[in-house]
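Category: protein sequence paired with discrete backbone structure
Discipline: computational structural biology
Format: plain text, a pair of labelled lines
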Amino acid sequence: MTQCPYMTTAAGTPISDNQNSLSAGPKGPLLMSDHQLMEKMAHFNRERIPERVVHAKGAGAYGHFTVTHDISHYTCAKLFANIGNQCDVFLRFSTVAGESGSADTVRDPRGFAVKFYTEGGNWDLVGNNTPVFFVRDPLKFSDFIHSQKRDPGTGLRDNTLQWDFWSLSPESLHQNTILFSERGIPATYRHMDGFSSHTYSLWTAKGERFWVKWHFKTAQGIQCLSNSEAAALAGTDPDYHRRDLQEAIQQGNFPQWRTFVQIMPELDATTYAINPFDLTKVWPHNDYPLVEVGLLELNRNPNNVFAETEQAAFEPSNVPIGMGVSPDKMLQARLLSYPDAHRYRIGINYSQLAVNKAHCPVHTYHRDGQTRFDTNGGSSVNYQPNSFHGPIDTYPLKEPPLKICGDADRYDHRVANDDYSQAGNLYRLMDEKQKTLLINNLVAALEHVPLFIQERQLEHFYKADPDYGYRIALALNLNNTSKD
């Protein structure tokens, strides 16, 4: 009898069960984190509908990731089975708010998205150069992005829109304290760290789960630009970061990042002082220290920016066996929104493009759709189960069940949530020079914003640290300048 291959996702990750959707209990509602269900439904809906959309500015490069330290006791992922294991990678850097022709050196978070082509399927880590984000509930993501984009009436970028949203969203204070600090404008893509920001998971063949945060520490050292330096480069070389990365690799100056994880045992999440799945919070290193894992190096430029960098499609649902996601609400929504954006922007068969294609066997029942450029499954059947030796879903390992409890409701994420302590702690860690730079950057962004928004935002600075609020109030010539 012919042995059937294991069924996989479009990224090559084996599927353990293609018969049952993921639900909260046997009679409970289905979960958005069932990325296999989402992939099947979204692919089916677009088999006859070509879609496309413009992509933001970015720069990318190929390289490899090498495992340098043993974490096999935390995961059964094949990549981490042995020290010395290696896989190819593609890393895409980007600015967030600007269009494809915008300057590289604006004050904006930088995307840090890595595609690991592992033997167990693609692993996509979508991160930033900051460990936190502006919002924690995905329902507010599009509103946040709209506030950072252009005014729909004037077509201009406007600080009023940004600070109006931020002043009404105190959870953004931690990220803004980072964004307007000395690290707010990296000198180059090579001279900044990367973070998963989200909490992900690792799991073992025995069914043990660990929550993890990924950190990429630049081996080149942190270097940043001042406002004046950034503005000068924007006017003389708006592609400065893209050019620097390309030229460094051409010259053999291959950038590297040491890779670490913070590891939290699964049950710790139920008693930890902060919500470990809150994207606006960090895990203090005293509680969960960095554990070194490997080394990431970039050593090859793309041959064609459009075909590779602009069509690179990252999706956090691409996690090989032994790895997983978490209850992080922002991450849960991105499991659907990222691949859905790719289907709209590139087309339904984006995973077959060379830059996105898994470096391991892929067996799916996906057929047809725009730009299908392979054999399209030939004469094989396109349904499962079947009697004709098609891919089957009996992979021996599957992720351990996640215990879920609670009533379905729309819970106010700001109730009993401290949005100020970590921002205040960060401020208090800064030396006097760093504090002065932070205050000056914030005041430059706030000084032309309407008074009522300045005053509303000022309350958040005071709650983080009285000195923080006092110095900004003083610089803005606001009446409320008491430290009490």
Observations:
- Residues 57-134+186-339 form a domain with the Catalase HpII,  Chain A, domain 1 fold (CATH 2.40.180.10).
- Residues 164 and 453 are 6 Å apart (CA to CA).
- Confidence is low (pLDDT under 50) at residues 48-55.
